[in-house]
Amino acid sequence: MIRLGVRVRREDADVVLAELLALAPSGVEETDLEDGKVIEYAVYGAPGELPDLPDVEAAVGGALVEVVTTEVADDWADRWRAFHQPIEIAGRLYVRPPWEPARTDLMDLVIDPGQAFGTGAHHTTRLCLELLAQEDVPSPAGVMDLGCGSGVLAIAAAKLGWGPVAGVDHELESVRATADNAVANGVDVSVERFDLIRGGPAPTAPLVLANLLRPLLLCVARAGFQDGAAPELLIASGLLAREADEIADAFARHGLRETDRRQSAEWAALVLRRTV
After folding, report:
1. Which of 78, 154, 189, 191 is the most exposed place for a label (fewest CB within 10 A)?
2. Looking at residue 252, which CATH number applies to its domain?
């Protein structure tokens, strides 16, 4: 097994992450180096299975710090499991990989981290989950998860009582992972393939969850929502804190006003509500 690490300055990390997820949609491992000044993203695979990286180097215009390829020891599977720890969200949800036991005092949410990006551990996913968990379930309570990845946000919404719940993703592997994880959690999530860049207006619902990087969030804001109907509530994350004002302004043209903002490390999440 080979580990391919891409080390980049923190200020360029979002560009590199976007490129890596396009090349390796099954997800990346993130590690802080040099007291947080450098971020290392890593992907794992057998020799010959790992993505080529010229596009990543070109995307950051020479800002790439280093690409490191190492052979992983025979116990890599155990070490990989140790990397994925269960997390508690807002005293309500317990997000865990399949090999960790459930807790009886919290809503149990099982996500296989080997299938697609988004297990709940990353700052952006945690922020979305925290903001989702604090919302009262209205009527109607439909949900659309844009860029559903592993399905963690959509499944959490279903567990919290929202419904019907749907999700879309450009990657076929993410569509399959969301469907599989929904079955494993005993919830109904309708999921299909959709290209947020080229597909036109985004699917919508009373609640839209959008844990997307800045370029995709701006694509959604420019294209708008299907039938011209902006959601009642949009929870947006995947953006750096310095990008939050730009994203809030982009969705304001759809009558969505920022009512809450939360930050973790350099990442931020927004709650936007329809006012007109």
Report:
1. 78
2. 3.40.50.150
Residue identified by tokens 């116990």 is 75
| Planar angle of CA 169, 51, 44, nearest 5 degrees | 90
Query: For residue 108, what are its two tokens?
Result: 């149990």
Kindly report, residue by residue over 37-74, the tens digit of the pLDDT: 888 888 776 666 666 666 556 555 555 667 777 776 66
Run of H or E residues at 270: strand 267-274
Residues 32 and 113 in one domain: no
Instruction: Give the separation between CA 175 and CA 178, rounded to whole angstroms.
Output: 5
Paired tokens of 267: 């990442």
Confidence class for position 5, pLDDT limits 50, 70, 90: confident
β partners of residue 5 = 42, 68
- Which residues are CB-neighbours of 231 under 8 A, at least 6 positions away? 144, 204, 205, 206, 207, 208, 225, 256, 274
Residues in CB range of 37: below 8 A, 6 or more apart? 9, 10
For residue 233, with 0-12 CB atoms within 10 Å meaning exposed, 13-18 middle and 19 or more buried, which class applies?
buried
Three-state SS for 229? coil
Structural domain boundaries, residue 209: 84-274
Alpha-carbon gap, residue 151 to 217, rounded angstroms: 18
List, for residues 78-99, the tens digit of each pLDDT value.
665 666 778 999 999 999 988 8
Do 161 and 111 have their domain in common?
Answer: yes
Instruction: Kindly report the pTM of this predicted structure.
Output: 0.77
> Of 18, 53, 79, which residue constitutes the final position of a domain?
79
Burial class (CB in 10 A: 0-12, 13-18, 19+), 79: exposed
So what's the pLDDT on residue 66?
A: 78
Total number of domains in the chain: 2
